[in-house]
Amino acid sequence: MSQSNLLALVVEDDNSWQQILSEILSDFGLTVSVASNLDEATRILRSEPHRIAIVDLSLSPNDHNNVDGLRVLDAVRKLDPNCKTILLTGFATVELAVTALTDYGAFTFLRKESFHRGQFRDIVNRVLASAPPQTTSTASLSAPAPASVSKTNNAAGKVTAEKVLVVDDDAGWRSILEELLTDIGFNVRACASFGDAIGFMRKDKFSLAVVDLSLKGTVALNLEEPSETSNSEGYQLLENARALGIPTIVVSGMAEAQEIQRIYAEHSISAYIEKQTFDRSAFLRAVEETHAAQQSTSELSALTEREREVLDLLAQGLTNKEIAEKLFITTNTVKRHLKAVFEKLDVHTRSAATAKMAGM
Question: Which of 6, 8, 126, 253 has the greatest number of CB atoms lying within 10 Å of its CB?
Answer without folding.
Answer: 8
